[in-house]
Amino acid sequence: MIRGSHGLRLVCPVQIMYWSGAEPRPTVSAMTTTLWALGDYAAVVDDLVSSLGPRLVEASGVGAGDRVLDVAAGTGNAAIPAAQAGADVVALDLTPELLAVGEQRADAAGVQLTWDVGDAEALPYGDDEFDIVLSCLGVMFAPHHQPAADELIRVCRPGGTVGLLSWTPNGFVGQMFATMRPFAPTPPPGAQPPPLWGTEHHVRDLFGDRVTDLVAQRETVREDGFADGEAFRDYFKTHYGPTIVTYRGIADQPERVEALDRALVELSAQNDLGGGAMDWEYLLLTAKVR
């Protein structure tokens, strides 16, 4: 274990989430500059999903004295509210740049967390180490779902809670990933689509009989900050790592760039509730470890 910049702990190797296949698999340093380090995911959190971390913390029953792990924590959208609730929190993510932002935000909020750089598919913690294990729009992007699910269960103590918040396949963000898929780089071998985590039956299959009291409910977050479909498209093209990577992969194919431009604008129009407002659906799921 070594300590990186901003006090981040580098605790295990990480892996890339999207790889073009045209060159050797990137090194760790290359991985952390792709995808979630691209654009400005911190702004995406602030602008679009800041309410979701606190919602997950509330639904998972985080309270004072709980030992909490936030997996694929990003900038701490769930980890910081958990710490504000009095929990002892560890926030883990594969992208140091996001954790550095989170650490600064935690300092500004006056709470202390541990920030670890590591892989959701190989968590660097002991069995049964945490009372509550959370992931808000995070673990769903681990390429291989079963190993990630196994790790969530492994590090949570018997009787503890696993709480997840994930975009659904049929919701707006799930549709956006489906729209981008034909244009996107080749995923790693064996990778599964992230929005599968937004289906109750998929998570039940991943967890199997290792959990009880599983509760899943679909909810929405209202988004009304985009004047029109073009504004939505351009925001994601400049701010959101997966969209940026997709466009970079077709940058030398102008006809495909134009096709994706049109498809994203059309998607926004199809989901417009009036005045540019959209409801983005997610699955909120909690379960107790046996």
Question: Can you characterise this structure?
Answer:
- By secondary structure, this protein is an alpha/beta fold.
- It has a single domain (2-224, 281-289), classed as 3-Layer(aba) Sandwich (Rossmann fold), CATH 3.40.50.
- It is built from 11 helices and 9 strands.
- The protein has helices spanning 28-31, 41-49, 52-59, 79-84, 96-109, 145-155, 172-180, 200-207, 229-239, 241-249, 254-270, and strands spanning 2-3, 9-10, 67-71, 88-93, 114-117, 130-136, 156-167, 211-223, 278-289.
- A 9-stranded mixed beta sheet has the order 1-2-5-4-3-6-7-9-8, sandwiched between helices.
- Helix 7 packs antiparallel against helix 11 (254-270), helix 9 crosses helix 10 (241-249) and helix 9 crosses helix 11 (254-270).
- The longest helix has 17 residues, at 254-270.
- The radius of gyration is 18 Å and the shape is globular.
- It starts with a strand and ends with a strand.
- Residues 1-5, 12-24 and 26-33 have low confidence and may be disordered.
